[in-house]
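Morning!

This is the sequence you dropped in the shared folder:
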Amino acid sequence: MSNTKPKVAFYWCASCGGCEESIIDLAEDILKVAAAVDIVFWPVALDFKRKDVEAMEDGSIAASFINGAVRNSEQEDMVKLLRRKSRIVVAHGSCSHLGGIPGLANFWDKETIFRRAYLTTPSTDNPQGVVPLEKSAVDGCELELPRFYDTVFSLDQVIDVDYYLPGCAPPRDLILSAFQALLEGTLPPKGSVLSPNKSECDECDRNDTKPEKLEIKEVKRPWEVHLDPEVCFLAQGVICMGPATRAGCGQRCISANMPCRGCFGPTDQVYDQGAKFLSAFASILATDDEKEIENIVQTIVDPAGTFYRFSLPSSILRRKRLEAVK
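The structure's back. Tokens below.
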């Protein structure tokens, strides 16, 4: 394999694995990528070890694509190692970009998560109350697990990040465009999100169906109503995060007649995606009466988990106060 090819690495932290699949979803185009770069680390797909990365010169990797939030000490160590070895680090997908769905764990802490997962779920059969330990002695040997953190972090809260590929998972056209820009040396300024800087509503095919004065009297969940595939979701009383979410996904959810969930995060003009949507939502309530407003809000199931589904760790809130949890 030619040494003149730029070296590229992929790594998976706390995520579902969909971002790893997004590389495979390049289909035949993955052959073009493989021909243009030298993949030097991709442990989910090829037999690479940590020692292989440690042996590389600092800055010798052209770009590392890291997906997933940082949840434990092993992930923190690996992303710091890859940062040192890489000239460019790309936060690949919602979880590394914003904290993602794993970041909803920031409403709790390690103690409450372990108690629920290993002791109190209805299907748990654990009479001895065994929970994972960082160090355990087995047959005279000491086994060690990564330290599980109280707080989930977005990638840029742990290391310096150069670019962000948004989405759960990022669509193939954005991934291919990122590779092309990397190979051609045409990347935008550092810190850029590699997707259009406008809202999903700006591109939505349902815009023409939005009434001149949009009003919500009751919030419904998608399964509670027969959704009209041509009409704005908000006009149907269903929460759609489009007003507070960056465009570029190709309307994948909307094309499937499901509202935007917010996985692309906010535009550059917005700091807190959840607060932005809350402001937009408040502006379309069909009443000024405080009691009626309260009744409408009560119809929202899990507002924090809905408005901050992908962005809690990177928001102003970031997490629930630990002392309040404990």
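Headline: The beta strands are 7-12, 38-41, 61-67, 70-72, 86-92, 135-138, 141-144, 148-153, 163-165.

More detail when I'm at my desk.
O.
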